[in-house]
Amino acid sequence: MTQAVAEEVAREDASDARLRERIEMLEQRLRKRDEHRRALLHILTDSHQSNLKLEQSRKAMIHIMGDLQKTTDDVTRREKELREKQAQLVQAGKLATLGELTTGVAHELNNPLNNIALFIGNVLDALDLGVATPDLTKKQLNNALLQVAKATEIISHLRTFGRAAPASRESVRVNEIVERALSLMDQQLRGRQIQVKLDLSAADPRVMANAIQLEQVFINLFANARDALTDAKTRRIDVRSAVVRDTVELTFSDTGEGIPEGLEQRIFDPFFTTKDVGEGTGLGLSITYGIVKDHQGTISVLKRPPGEGATFLIQLPLAGASATEGGAG
């Protein structure tokens, strides 16, 4: 082979090598582009799947929100129904209490009615005897009017206590409500030879309360103590009110057998009673607990030795939290 031929062959080999290099480079570019395309396709696929998942999540969230709204509406409706049932229960307990008080109230009304008959009879007798004078007649009729006012006050008190309590609250004198509750229970207690001792704070504390509901609380506690003293040798109820810091504390104590150990909390459960079948509904203390709690207060049973009676402690927020204890009166 001549030198010229050899050089030509060498040039062709070099050209082939450069061509192969270019082909390989192009193939590498094509592979990279294909990899980029596949990566982009994978990214697009993932993005589409993510969008689908987001759409599903959005639909699930809308469904959950709908269920939540429905649940909220159901809870609101049931809370309203519960409040209505509680109000009905309180009113039923109040009417049951009024039924128990009927005999005593009838006796309380008999006194002014008898006095009215007496005063009017005096006037008629004086007229029949011809000794009636304007002053005597006026005096007797005025006395009769005073007895009419007394009877009217008793009936008005019963009507006020018997009607459904309004939702409003106002500043009321605790001592006054205790005395009003006792006025309704007084005849029943005296008829059973039960002595009541009041030791009420001279500070005349006030609380923000519904007076009718608070009176029902005190009547229920008087009635509970009354029943606890049925077989007691000493029959006494002690009621005390005091101001302790920003709280009004009231205690109702009796000299009965007391509450069996372990039942201190159960006695506030609805329909729970330690009385014999047919002698109690088990609602009095439960209603009392609910009313006190609704007034942001507490009611509890204080520990006392067995056989030494029961003491209920009620704590209510002082209206304005500005009064101070001034001693007992």
- Sheet with most strands: 5 strands, mixed
- The H-level CATH homologous superfamily of the domain at 172-329, spelled out, is Histidine kinase-like ATPase, C-terminal domain
Q: What is the chain-wise order of helices and strands? A: HHEHEEHEEHEE
Q: Would you count the extended β strands for me? A: 7
Regarding CATH, which class of the domain at 172-329? Answer: Alpha Beta
CATH topology heading of the domain at 172-329: Heat Shock Protein 90
Low-confidence stretches: 322-329
How large is the count of helical segments?
Answer: 5
Terminal Cα span: 144 Å
Beta fraction: 5-15%
Largest beta sheet: strand ordering: 2-4-5-7-6
Percent in helix: 55-70%
> In the CATH classification, which architecture of the domain at 172-329 applies?
2-Layer Sandwich
